[in-house]
Write a structure and sequence with these properties.
Distance between the termini: 45 Å
Order of helices and strands: HHHEEHHEEHE
Radius of gyration: 27 Å
Helix content: 25-40%
Strand order of the largest sheet: 4-3-2-1-5
Largest sheet: 5 strands, antiparallel
Shape: elongated
Number of helices: 6
Number of strands: 5
Strand content: 5-15%
Oligomer: single chain
Length: 207
């Protein structure tokens, strides 16, 4: 069931659909010359002017109307889109696709048994850039760095996950993190590390 938010009720006129700070009756009485309601409007304006945004820290607006937040979200979404596009390109070039056979040595205690598995699924939706990728990105395009970190810092939840591909063992050996399962999900970054010459490849495409 979706979240239901009830329409607000004004603390002055009692009508629904607005709050006391936006009451048309108070505004009307102030425009008619009432000193009392002029003072009420001035107090409201001063409160808005002194309000501190919980997103950017500046005064005069709140998080909902923050222009920094709006601009930063556009940048954040752009970074995520470029990241996923780059990951898809890398996967294609390195032969990681649904149906590919993978030689995999999982990370668990002393029984590091190599197993052969095949890729059952690749997940790119709603994945976020890894910090290593972001460092590379920002070294090339430093503009927007402040906006990205400000946006990421203020998210209620900001998981930074790499693109994932799911494996299923075809040799009957466990490939879970502790060797207790015949299926697992692997960060593409783990596979990419195996392509570097100075790193022992724990994950390889073999067919």
């Amino acid at each position: 069931m979706g979240n239901y938010r009830r329409s607000p009720r004004c603390g002055y006129c009692g009508e629904r659909g607005h709050t006391r700070n936006h009451c048309p009756e108070i505004k009307r009485l102030a425009e008619q010359g009432s000193e009392k309601f002029k003072r009420i409007l001035q107090v409201q304006k001063d409160a808005v002017k002194n309000r501190k945004c919980s997103y950017c820290g500046e005064r005069g607006h709140n998080k909902r109307s923050c222009n920094y937040k709006k601009a930063d979200k556009v940048f954040y979404d752009m970074v995520g889109k470029e990241f996923i596009e780059e990951r898809r390109k890398d996967m294609k070039e390195n032969g990681v696709a649904v149906g590919s056979l993978i030689s995999y040595v999982p990370y668990y205690d002393n029984t590091e048994t190599t197993t052969i598995a095949y890729v059952t699924k690749i997940v790119t939706e709603n994945q976020s850039p890894t910090w290593r990728w972001l460092e590379k990105y920002f070294s090339e395009k430093p503009d927007g760095r402040e906006g990205y970190y400000r946006y990421a810092r203020n998210l209620d939840s900001s998981p930074r996950q790499d693109v994932l591909f799911f494996l299923k063992s075809v040799t009957g050996t466990g490939i879970g993190q502790w060797g207790d399962s015949e299926t697992c999900a692997v960060d593409y970054e783990d596979f990419e590390k195996g392509l570097r010459k100075d790193t022992d490849a724990r994950i390889k495409v073999v067919g």
